[in-house]
């Protein structure tokens, strides 16, 4: 990444590239036993079965992108910042996002797109916690506004650590999967719903996204298994991603990105 920004500039932007492994002091609240698990975001393919529907409609699969374990180190990685805007690596920006810096989130910690196709109650098999609103909509990572100061004040990382330790002690869910219920539970009542026009999700799995919706969205999120840089990426959506690629860049050629 550092080599990339040594070779490429964007307007007058200042870019600082940091690596979690470069930080000698990580969060005291969280004991991550494997640095390889500190991925920037997690994505889960969740399938539901509804026997009350017709056979063709009984099974529904959705892709839920959530904060990864590394997101919970944000207060330590960025100790001097009060607000950050987080972009996942499978998201492209089409329009100006600067108004998000002044967005009034009413005391909430994270601004996120709500995904009401999935409710928390449908994910109860992933946790033994029962103290949550089963009708609450799931929220998605991709484009997020994070009030880091509020996060610190509410000790979010410490609460996350407590839930993580409890799930690890129970041993019911593997470590990578634990982030799904924890991320959703720890931010209960702390999510500010962003307007849908900020993010168009589903470009990594949904063939039915309209060109009109794509054009009017500020960002495009390729959540799902069919990423635009892969051969199996959905062809109709690849041009929106390819538009922002740097032609003739050696790293693009070496990584077979075209």
Which features would summarize this protein structure in a list?
258 residues, alpha/beta, Spore Coat Polysaccharide Biosynthesis Protein SpsA, Chain A, four-stranded mixed β-sheet, three-stranded mixed β-sheet, 8 helices, polygalacturonate 4-alpha-galacturonosyltransferase activity, glycosyltransferase, Nucleotide-diphossugar_trans
Architecture overview:
This protein is about 20% helix and about 20% strand. By secondary structure, the chain is α/β, with parallel strands linked by helices. It has one domain (about 25-255): Alpha-Beta Complex (Spore Coat Polysaccharide Biosynthesis Protein SpsA, Chain A), CATH 3.90.550. A four-stranded mixed β-sheet has the order 3-6-5-7. A three-stranded mixed β-sheet has the order 4-9-8, with no helix packed on it. Strands 1-2 form a two-stranded antiparallel sheet. Helix 6 (about 210-215) links the parallel strand 8 (about 200) and strand 9 (about 220). The radius of gyration is 19 Å and the shape is globular. The mean pLDDT is about 85.
In short:
By secondary structure, this protein is an alpha/beta fold. It has eight helices and nine strands.
Instruction: State Rg.
Output: 19 Å
Can you name the CATH architecture?
Answer: Alpha-Beta Complex
In total, the number of domains comes to 1
Structure classification: alpha/beta
User: What fraction of residues sit in β-strands?
Assistant: 15-25%
Keywords: Cell wall biogenesis/degradation, Glycosyltransferase, Golgi apparatus, Transferase
InterPro entries: GAUT (IPR029993), Glyco_trans_8 (IPR002495), Nucleotide-diphossugar_trans (IPR029044)
Enzyme class: transferase
Main location: Golgi
């Amino acid at each position: 990444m550092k080599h990339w920004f040594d070779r490429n500039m964007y307007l007058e932007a200042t870019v600082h590239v940091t690596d979690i492994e470069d930080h000698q002091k990580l969060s005291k609240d969280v004991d991550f036993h494997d640095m390889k698990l500190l991925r920037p975001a997690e994505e889960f393919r969740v399938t539901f079965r509804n026997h009350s529907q017709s056979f063709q409609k009984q099974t529904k699969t959705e892709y839920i992108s959530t904060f990864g374990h590394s997101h919970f180190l944000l207060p330590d990685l960025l100790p001097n910042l009060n607000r950050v805007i987080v972009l996942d690596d499978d998201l492209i920006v089409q329009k100006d996002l600067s108004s998000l810096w002044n967005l009034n989130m009413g005391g909430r910690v994270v601004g996120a797109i709500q995904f009401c196709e999935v409710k928390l109650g449908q994910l109860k098999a992933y946790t033994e916690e029962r103290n949550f609103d089963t009708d609450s909509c799931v929220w998605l990572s991709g484009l997020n506004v994070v009030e880091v100061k509020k996060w610190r004040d509410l000790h979010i990382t410490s609460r996350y650590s407590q839930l993580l330790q409890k799930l690890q002690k129970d041993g019911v869910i593997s470590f990578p999967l634990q982030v799904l219920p924890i991320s959703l539970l720890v931010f209960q009542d702390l999510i500010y719903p962003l307007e849908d026009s900020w993010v168009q999700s589903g470009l990594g799995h949904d063939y039915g996204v309209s060109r009109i919706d794509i054009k009017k969205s500020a960002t495009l999120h390729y959540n799902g298994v069919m990423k635009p840089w892969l051969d199996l990426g959905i062809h109709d959506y690849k041009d929106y991603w390819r538009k922002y690629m740097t032609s003739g860049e050696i790293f693009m050629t070496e990584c077979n990105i075209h």
